[in-house]
UniProtKB/TrEMBL annotation, chain A:
Enzyme Commission code: 2.7.7.13
Entry protein name: Mannose-1-phosphate guanyltransferase
GO molecular function, one term: GTP binding
Keywords of this entry: Cell cycle, Cytoplasm, GTP-binding, Nucleotide-binding, Transferase
Pfam family, one: NTP_transferase
Pathways per UniProt: Nucleotide-sugar biosynthesis; GDP-alpha-D-mannose biosynthesis; GDP-alpha-D-mannose from alpha-D-mannose 1-phosphate (GTP route): step 1/1
Family, similarity comment: Belongs to the transferase hexapeptide repeat family.
CDD domains on file: LbH_M1P_guanylylT_C (cd05824), M1P_guanylylT_B_like_N (cd06425)
This protein's GO CC annotations: cytoplasm
Superkingdom classification of source: Eukaryota
Cell compartment(s), UniProt: Cytoplasm
A GO biological process held by the record: cell wall organization or biogenesis
Regions that span the bilayer: none
From TrEMBL, chain B:
Record organism: Trichodelitschia bisporula
Top-level taxon in the UniProt lineage: Eukaryota
Domain Mannose-1-phosphate guanyltransferase C-terminal intervals: 309-437
Family: Belongs to the transferase hexapeptide repeat family.
Name of this protein: Mannose-1-phosphate guanyltransferase
Catalytic activity: alpha-D-mannose 1-phosphate + GTP + H(+) = GDP-alpha-D-mannose + diphosphate
Annotated Nucleotidyl transferase domain residues: 17-210
Length: 364, 438
């Protein structure tokens, strides 16, 4: 089987992290975001993966070569010379996606969930029409495009309602699809939107179905959602009794949902959790309090620091008695001085912070 | 320099007494919330009550055998302090003189003139208890003798933009004579200001006060030096305060006259000087007195180490975990309990307070018996040493730069309190900043 991952541009919404690494390589739950998707696709029997990108950093090529071997898949870059929207990249990759009659997956690289690729393929095969989009239930559908089914039909889509004022349903497009190669005939090679153009044309021909996603779903394209998504992901692992989490019997674990790389070092008298990921080679001092935060590879948190709702970038250092909160994001190699308070600071790489950041702002 | 034969040599050695002006409870409102639980003069900075710092400076002069504390607090307020002081300095007689109504700084002196003049002292020191400085009384005495003065005032230079908040002194830089004195002028006159510490010839000061009282009776309600611009405000000032005509203040009513007619000199101190007005100003005062104690290698201070950044004062009955890091400029009161991994800097922690593990206290005062939870952060904002203010502007609003927890307040685990004043007996369970918590 085949799949196309829509990666797109520079990931500016996830800066300052994406000033250092391309978005697909930023670790989510101690694993590059794209690897979550590659593993799930490979497990569902996918052998050909196309990455739709509009730039191709060297670091990405190398990393993906490694994954090709590890997961026995072929990974191709499809580079747009101009942005082609969400449907154009499918046409651009027609050679691969249309090489046989088997359907292909399409996924948005920012979406994390418990990818249901095998079930999705089975469902798609069963109804026999051209396409299936995964939908997820949300509390506030008025912020999204809502899927409305044909009367009396559980899955066939009747129409999409963009940001509905009145309640018409609460299922929204989750950014994961499975499509027959024939769909490629509906797409022209130009900037075009799969949501605005391709899907409505399929709906008109009664060719589009929805598939309900079980469990969590999040678009983690920006820091606030990256943290929220981390909580959902860790809670899901916890529910499944995953070995990836530190057992709650560890004295420093507080409230569960804690993932710590085996090479990380934890000091004495810490209180960690809930919802914390600690990456490779991270060093945590004594008496440190961590909750709802992501510590990326080789970062250091010194004694008695307090961190909440924060992403600590690679190689960064958080000083003793420092306090970080309210969606603070430290880029690569940032230093936060001892006793410093940062409230919602976005700190660009290689900066040293010696004065409090009392209210949310960007430190260039 | 050689001295000429003094003009007014009296027989026998001159005798000197000292007076500490402490004010009264209705005057200490700006020291809230701390003055809700302790009279301001007894509030401890650098391990000693504010008034004791004055007292210790006086005790260094061997010729002073008698000290009066004048104020309108209840007698019982200073009873213990006086008992302790008499014990520590057996050579000095200490007496509290209570004004039953606020008479003003000069009015109080005059009211108690018989007690003060008993034994016919030649000179009296007058110290306002609400200033924090090194009290160079010895230098003032030398200048007094050298100049054959009738009055000496302690002065200090402050930045031009704040000078008009104080009494301004115009001086002849060569002779050090005071040429002109204006209390809180409307325009810039001088950046040499009144420190609130004086030395008077008793034959000069009491007649000067008497003259001022007489003038007041002749021309009721007219305060000091009205210009056409401030005539109205000085007129209203009396009415608003509800003060009677007998209120005579040294600053407004006496010093200007002395500058006009008397041998009045200024000793300009290059040393530290701060007013202790608001509760927040106790933090810089604490820092200055601790620094002074450190420079004079006081035995009272905690020994510097990896976790003690000097100067730090720790009361012998306090418990401090060895992993806590304290200083600089920290005072820890009696029976205080400081947990492991705590950080305290530029702060005063009062009696029976508890700081739990990994908490951080910066630029703050932690009230008596208050509790700061684990990983909590209680924080003020540092203000530059040169400013004589304890407020900062946040989002266009003036807020206290020093965070103060009143008596028996609680800060829950992990909570952050910034630039707040918290009245006694409040529990803070959520993050707060830039607020007064009633």
């Amino acid at each position: 089987m085949k799949a196309l991952i829509l990666v797109g541009g520079f990931g500016t919404r996830l800066r300052p992290l994406t000033l250092t690494l391309p978005k697909p390589l930023v670790e989510f739950g101690n694993k590059p975001m794209i690897l979550h998707q590659i593993q799930a696709l490979a497990a569902a029997g996918v052998t050909d993966i196309v990455l739709a990108v509009n730039y191709r950093p060297e670091v990405m090529t190398e990393k993906l070569k490694k994954y090709e071997k590890e997961y026995n898949v072929r990974i191709e870059f499809s580079v747009e010379t101009e942005p082609l929207g969400t449907a154009g990249p499918l046409k651009l990759a027609e050679k691969i996606l249309g090489k046989d009659d088997a359907p292909f997956f399409v996924l948005n690289s920012d979406v994390i969930c418990d990818y249901p690729f095998a079930e999705l393929a089975a469902f798609h095969k069963q109804h026999g029409d051209e396409g299936t989009i995964v939908v997820t239930k949300v509390e506030e559908p008025s912020k999204y495009g809502v899927v409305v089914h044909k009367p009396g039909h559980a899955s066939r889509i009747d129409r999409f309602v963009e940001k509905p004022i009145e309640f018409v349903g609460n299922r929204i497009n989750a950014g994961l699809y499975i499509l027959n190669p024939s769909v490629l005939e509906r797409i022209e090679l130009r900037p075009t939107s799969i949501e605005q153009e391709t899907f409505p044309s399929m709906v008109r021909d009664n060719q589009l179905h929805s598939f309900d996603l079980e469990g969590y779903w999040m678009d983690v394209g920006q820091p606030k959602d990256f943290l929220a998504g981390t909580c959902l992901y860790l809670s899901d692992l916890s529910k499944k009794g995953s070995k990836l989490l530190v057992p709650t019997s560890e004295p420093y674990v507080y409230g569960g949902n804690v993932m710590i790389d085996s090479t990380a070092k934890i000091g004495k008298n810490c209180r960690i959790g809930p919802n914390v990921t600690i990456g490779k080679g991270v060093v945590i001092g004594d008496g440190v309090r961590l909750q709802r935060c992501v510590l990326l590879e080789s970062s250091k948190v010194r004694d008695h620091a307090w961190i909440k709702s924060t992403i600590v970038g690679w190689n960064s250092t958080v000083g003793r008695w420092a306090r970080l909160e309210n969606v603070t994001v430290l880029g690569d190699d940032v230093t936060i001085g001892d006793e410093i308070y940062v409230n919602g600071g976005s700190i660009l790489p290689h900066k040293t912070i010696k004065e409090n950041v009392d209210s949310p702002r960007v430190i260039m | 320099m050689s001295l000429d034969v003094p003009l007014r040599q009296k027989p026998g050695p001159s005798s000197t007494k000292a007076i500490i002006l402490v004010g009264g409870p209705s005057r200490g409102t700006r020291f809230r919330p701390l003055s809700l639980d302790v009279p301001k003069p007894l509030f401890e900075v650098a391990g000693h009550p504010i008034v004791e710092h004055c007292f210790r400076a006086i005790a260094k002069l061997p010729e002073i055998r008698e000290v009066f504390i004048i104020g309108y607090y209840d007698e019982s307020v200073f009873r213990d302090f006086i008992k302790d002081a008499s014990h520590t300095f057996p050579g000095i007689a200490v007496k509290y003189l209570r004004e039953y109504q606020a008479l003003g700084t000069a009015g109080g002196l005059y009211h108690f003139r018989d007690a003060i003049m008993k034994g016919r002292p030649d000179r009296i020191f007058v110290l306002n208890a609400d200033v924090c400085c090194s009290f160079p009384l010895g230098q003032m005495l030398r200048l007094f003798e050298e100049k054959n003065a009738e009055a000496v005032i302690l002065g200090t230079r402050v930045p031009e933009d704040v000078a008009t908040n104080f009494g301004c002194i115009v001086t002849d830089s060569h002779t050090k004579r005071v040429l002109h004195y204006v209390e809180k002028p409307e325009s810039r006159i001088s950046n040499l200001i009144n420190c609130g510490v004086y030395l008077f010839d008793t034959e000069c000061i009491f007649p000067a006060i008497r003259t001022a009282i007489k003038r007041r009776t002749d021309r009721p309600r007219l305060v000091s030096y009205p210009s056409s611009e401030n005539l109205e405000t000085s007129f209203f000032a009396d009415e608003e305060d509800g003060e009677k005509n007998e209120v005579i203040r040294l600053e407004q009513d006496i010093l200007s006259d002395l500058a006009d007619s008397r041998q009045f000199f200024v000793l300009e101190t290059k040393d530290f000087w701060r007013q202790i007005k608001t509760a927040g100003s106790a933090v810089p005062a604490n820092a200055l007195y601790l620094t002074k104690a450190f420079q004079s290698q006081s035995e009272e201070l905690a020994k510097p180490s990896a976790t003690i950044l000097p100067p730090v004062y720790i009361h012998p009955s306090a418990t401090v975990d060895p992993t806590a890091k304290l200083g600089p400029n920290v005072s820890i009161g009696p029976r205080v309990n400081i947990g492991p991994g705590v950080r305290i800097k530029e702060a005063i922690v009062l009696e029976d307070a508890e700081i739990k593990h990994d908490a951080c206290v910066l630029y703050s005062i932690i009230g008596w018996g208050s509790k700061v939870g684990a990983w909590a952060r209680v924080e003020g904002t540092p203000t530059p040493v040169t400013t004589h203010s304890t407020t900062v502007v946040r989002n266009g609003v003036k807020v206290q730069s020093i965070t103060i927890l009143g008596k028996e307040c609680g800060v829950a685990d992990e909570v952050r309190v910034q630039n707040c004043i918290c009245l006694p007996y409040k529990e803070l369970k959520k993050d707060v900043s830039n607020e007064i918590i009633m």
